[in-house]
Amino acid sequence: MTDAWNPSSVGVLRLPSGRLVRGRGLRQPLPPGPTPTFAVYLLGRRPPAVAWESRWLRWPDFRLPIDRAHARKVLHEAWESATTQRVEIACRGGRGRTGTALACLAIIDGVPATEAIAFVRRHYDPRAVETPWQKGYVTRFTPRSTGRHC
Prior knowledge:
Blueprint: E1 12-14, E2 20-25, E3 38-43, E4 53-58, H1 68-81, E5 87-91, H2 96-108, H3 113-123, H4 132-140
Parallel strand pairs: 2-5, 3-4, 3-5
Antiparallel strand pairs: 1-2
């Protein structure tokens, strides 16, 4: 297993299963310490290349992912990867899109959808998940594909 994130580092969220995932805003410099080994970037435009494995979810600021089925697949990949890798979820500011994705990871990890936003706000950032449609996306998110578009 890759060395995990330090659970007390800024932005690191411990999911109920014990998986550690770091959320952050890309407008801030890369924090000191270990770099991610796998990252998901939630941006309207393709992010610059990085030295670690990464995925890009086309997700405009204050909005929802353009392809929700692809988003579910990538978030599952991030959740699985967090068992053995340092996974980072990041958008420009680190709150809205990042908080929404982290709440979805919490749902995949077993947190009820009705509690996922509160979980992320308590353990990651009190202002995570910024818009009404991001909140709706989280509460409708299902950990498995149901044919719905969430």
